[in-house]
Amino acid sequence: MKKKTIEFSSHTGNLALMRNCVRDFLNGYPFSEKERLLMVLGVDEACTNIIRYAYRLRDDQLIALSMEGLRKCVRMRLRDYGEQVMPQEMKGRSHGMIKPGGLGLYLIRNAFDEVDYLLKRQGTELVLTKNLE
């Protein structure tokens, strides 16, 4: 079982390093290049949402990303300690509507087979699972 955890502050300048870590972690798994790219973008979008909504653009807050390769799937866990947003309140927009923003949740749900929000005592843990076919 392959496992890696990284912690970084909620500064958007850290997102490129995080994307590289996710990309490196996914090497060796039998995903297509498109699937890999979508997963990297999905985790990036989730981090952007944490920065924007949980941390209200504060750039000095903790984000922890744990990645694990299991027998039948790859699982990414993103943990924040910010404001909680109830999953039913998260609304993307219709992807037929042409305007910026609002497609992040759509992207995340298309990149992963399971998307689970676990509300913690403080903050949220987002669990993203991609099955190995």
Topology:
Layout: E1 2-9, H1 15-26, H2 33-54, E2 62-69, E3 73-80, H3 104-111, E4 114-119, E5 124-131
Antiparallel strand pairs: 1-2, 2-3, 3-5, 4-5
Helix pairs in contact: 1-2, 2-3
Number of strands: 5
Tell me the span between the first and last alpha carbons: 17 Å
The assigned structural class equals alpha+beta
- Integer count of domains: 1
CATH superfamily: Histidine kinase-like ATPase, C-terminal domain
CATH topology: Heat Shock Protein 90
Number of helices: 3
Tell me, what's the shape?
globular
Please give the order of strands in the largest beta sheet: 1-2-3-5-4
Percent in strands: 25-35%
CATH architecture: 2-Layer Sandwich
Largest sheet: 5 strands, antiparallel
CATH class: Alpha Beta
Poorly predicted regions: none
